[in-house]
Give the backbone structure.
Amino acid sequence: MSEAAPEPTGAEAEAPEPAIAARRLIRTAREATLATVTGSGQPFASLVTPAPAPDLSVLLWLSMLSGHTRHLMNDARCSLLFVGPARGPNPQKRARLTVTGLASRVEGPEAGALKARWLARHPYAKLYAGFNDFALWRISLEEGLFVGGFAMARRIPGSALRPEPAAVAAIAEAEAEIIAHVNEDHAEALDAIAQGVLKRKGTGWRLAAVDVDGCDLVRGQARARLDFARPVADADGVRRALILAAKAGRTALGLPKRRAAQP
């Protein structure tokens, strides 16, 4: 990766706008609360383990034996609550996002790739991933309510919450090539990002997934998320974002700067 990339502006270092912060909550979540509607109209809440699809729709691996799955089969309307890390003793200071959406079962050619994406987020689930009573579901997001902290609520329309479809398609098409190239030729840069930027330990970090908002790094069972300063539109945008992150990581670790080179 070349070092010839622009430095981030001051605005990029500020707190992200609500739509971006909301998307980051979804991209990093390992658990969420799912609210469904029973046949009698009674709301029902349960714990689920989500994974984001490239277009930010939420993937769930659900059992037919679960009540919430049967609810979704009868009424696709649902809601998800994502909660960020604690910021002290007051729970109201935690960032959180409530999204409404419609659920549908994922079938056809895309099911295999999306299931693999869900399993990459939840590798422990391989123990039951092949059970016949399980299936992959997707929740398409319609609207969100983001709360950045106490008395900091902002409603987000679906058009602002969902990433640009053209950018999603462009990066999805290039994702496999990006991952292969970075893992093969830039392992040192990934370790610098993981250690210097994401404050993770160890070497041997690998790039596992890329989307418009950032990328996922893995090392064994450990996982780390790199959020881009702003959404990117194509493979070149991913390259530039990784260059900046690698440079920041090397600086934080006190490593010498790499000479500019063509990717």
In short: The first strand starts at residue 32 and ends at 37. Residues 2-13 have pLDDT under 50 and may be disordered.
